[in-house]
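Lecture 7 notes: from sequence to structure.

We start with a single chain of 146 residues. Read the sequence below before looking at the structure.
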Amino acid sequence: MDIQTILADASENIGGNTKVKGLMRKEGRLKPGAEKPEDVLGFDYLVHLDNTCFEYYSANPPLHGTTQAVPVPCPVGIEIFDDFKVDYTAAITIFHRGNWGSQFTSMTLSKPLVYPQTTEPYWYMVSNLGQTVIIGADSGEIVYPT
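Now the structure, written as tokens:
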């Protein structure tokens, strides 16, 4: 699902004439022993609107369903973003280029608030061997480990 669809779905989920400012986090819900895109059941989304954050879950096909967006405290340390190029299916392919385990136990997309400022959001994936892998969500480059 591209970012514009995510933001449009979030606006509809929140209701009224809202326009979501951007995405803050996209966190995968995974089958145990996740190895491929079909093992990602859906995503928990954290979006930003008018100084308020909302969180909701949306299932990936062939599953159906979305939970109602609920207001939550906005986290510290991540930026709002409204674009990325590498979707989760491509991130999984890139993950498998390395030698850090065949499965992943978590998958999160966010843009850290650091200095100097980051130029893109990152996919953070943890392998079944405990290795954190960071992939640029625009460049597709493995940022960590190098």
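The first helix runs from residue 3 to 14. Keep this in mind for problem set 3.
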